[in-house]
Amino acid sequence: MKVFQSLILIALCSSFSLLKAQEVSHDLLLKNVTIIDVASGETHLKRHVGIDGDKITQIYSNAIIASKETQTIDASGKFLIPGLWDMHTHYFWNYNSSNPALIANGVTGIREMWGNMDIINMVKKQIVNGTITGPDIFTAGAIIDGNPPIWPGSAGVGNAEEAVAEVDKQITQGVDFFKVYSRLTREAYYAIAAKSKASDIPFAGHIPNSISIWEAMEAGQYSSEHLYGILEAVNSKPDELAAQPSAFSEKSMELMIDNFDENLFDSLATVLAKSNMWISPTLTVLRSIAYLDDSTFTNDPRLKYVPAFMTASWDPAKDFRFKGRPASFYETSRKKYELQLSLMGKLANKGVKIIAGTDYANPFCFPGFSLHDEMALMVAGGMSPLQALQAATLNAAIFQGKEEKFGTVDTGKVASLVLLNANPLDNIDNTKKIHAVILRGKIIDRKALDKLLASAQTLSGN
Prior knowledge:
Blueprint: H1 2-20, E1 22-24, E2 28-36, E3 43-52, E4 55-60, E5 64-66, E6 71-74, E7 79-82, E8 84-89, H2 95-104, E9 107-112, H3 117-128, E10 136-139, E11 144-145, E12 155-156, H4 160-173, E13 178-180, H5 186-199, E14 203-205, H6 213-219, E15 223-225, H7 230-233, H8 238-242, H9 250-258, H10 262-274, E16 278-280, H11 283-290, H12 295-298, H13 308-313, H14 327-342, H15 344-349, E17 353-354, H16 369-380, H17 385-391, H18 394-400, E18 417-420, E19 434-439, E20 442-445, H19 446-459
């Protein structure tokens, strides 16, 4: 009798629970997922995420029943994070094979650091109309460098008037920011800074050889790439370092390493944290340069996703930056890289604003894949998994002034998301364990992601 009564009670409770469950209708519903709050580091268990069009329209914590029309994904045991952003790319060089590799790795947005605006604007239109599957793009135009520029195809400017003319041209092309480079004169640099402020379009990139990081902060440079200017600013023998003809010579690197001053670094980090400047360390490319002579590093299986014409250019014998460099150059480069890597946790814990970028397609920087490398290197350098994850999600949104549109998993934001098989806060390498990607509201499951990777290899000719 008691058993019978218990069965009736269970049935009644189940019926009551079903009666209480809310029926919902969405284009797409992720059920029973754990949401990673990248702003706070909290995890929200057993949430149901409703998506309509390209937006997250509702997040439920109560019991729900999906309508028959709703595409429903059981995400039990899965972890949901915002779509990832690679904040330093050279995408237009080879966007065809880059697109599938990026999306397959959960990279739903990029900051293009050297955009051919005719190509970028064309690609943006094709992405919007669905002709191609690709990331959101935040872009610069041509690199603005001194005259002559380092890279062919850059805009070389010799004075303030030429700098202003180039900036005006890029404004008409629809750039999101201006990219400054190493050979700019002080006159041209400050003209760009003034025009940036007047037009309300930020400028970012290299800190020119003629400018210190202190001056760049004061001028309003919005991001500094590759940790440039930091070791120079915290050197206990600045005059000796400044006397070197190149910041990339063995002697310069040795001086940076030997005369690194921890107290000066703490002071710089404190000022950086209070400034408006963001740091884009691009640890991936710094590591690549340091290990360019190491065959255990360069024999990377991911080479199959890169076209031969690009991998051929990665041969140091064919690159003017590295041609003829002796083994001692790479030994010193590795020491410098290890010092730079060790600063990451200190910078982050001081409150310095950091974004994650890879600088692909520089040597052994792979579209999509290397952003996961970048986050792992940040953690190896002392940042927490949460801080590294923030650098590739929330911070990318804040940097662009678009935190109301993306960067966290919240109602009203664009539904570009990554569904993981394991918690990235436990181990940052778990960002690689991708179950599915949601790109602007459209789900791409594991089978489809694998097809994207296969197409990236095919498009690369491998």
